[in-house]
Amino acid sequence: MLPIDRLAVNKCNSKASPRTRVHTNLLPDPPLGDPLTAAVVVLALYPSFDEDTAEEHKDPWQEHEFRIAMATPEDFFWLRDDVAHTGGGRWWRNKLAPLIEATSVEAVRRHVAAGHLHQCHSKSSSPLLRPPSGRYNLEVIRKALGSGIPALVLTGLPSWRVADSAFRDAPFYEPRSPQSMVVSPKNMPEGFPVAVNAVSTALRETD
């Protein structure tokens, strides 16, 4: 848990159910790229909690890498080769697989960022949880949208719409199936080609 979020998280946990309780013994996910410099932003709700992968987050090496990524969000952390075997690495590579296949894993790692309402781990999201770090996330996403960066919503579109007044009519690219959370031509027929073009353009401009 981030120090700035301690008061908000403890207040939420005092009223939370087992499913919405934040697991304060785990570090929050690091920023996944920088939305302000990315070519594409994908939006999710929060990092889920999985009993099978929770121990990975306590690994000293992974905690160390988390802290570095928090201080310097240079790329999409979970697409790094050295974390590809982890639960987070496998999950994100699965959800972004069609975009990776259409471009490359390096291109997506460098030019795609992910935004969360908050980065605390829980089994289910609670509307009562509004940590300061989450408000900062919303501010960054708001600025990214203002600069014209395309945003693809993986899941939780209604929650994003009400999270900030700037998002109520924002031109989000919506999924056909929020349950699958895959960036693919079938699930995001409008957003997928936009994402491929934006990533490919960014790759050409930076090479």
Can you describe this structure?
This protein is mainly α. The chain has one domain (3-9, 32-206). 42% of the residues lie in helices and 5% in strands. The chain is built from nine helices and three strands. It has helices at 6-13, 51-57, 60-71, 87-95, 97-102, 105-111, 132-146, 157-163, 191-206, and strands at residues 40-43, 112-115, 151-153. The protein has a three-stranded parallel beta sheet. The longest helix is centred in the last third of the chain and has 16 residues, at 191-206. The protein starts with 5 loop residues before the first helix and ends with a helix.
Note the total helix count.
9
The structural domain count equals 1
How many beta-strand runs? 3
Overall spatial form: globular
Radius of gyration over C-alpha positions, nearest whole angstrom = 16 Å
Q: List unreliable stretches of 5+ residues.
A: none
Structural class: mainly alpha
Return the string of H and E elements.
HEHHHHHEHEHH
Calculate the terminal CA-CA distance, rounded to whole Å.
37 Å
**Helical content (DSSP H or I, runs of 4+):** 40-55%
Strand order of the largest sheet: 2-1-3
Q: What percent of residues are in strands?
A: 5-15%
Instruction: Sketch the major β-sheet.
Output: 3 strands, parallel
Instruction: Give the overall pLDDT as a whole number.
Output: 85
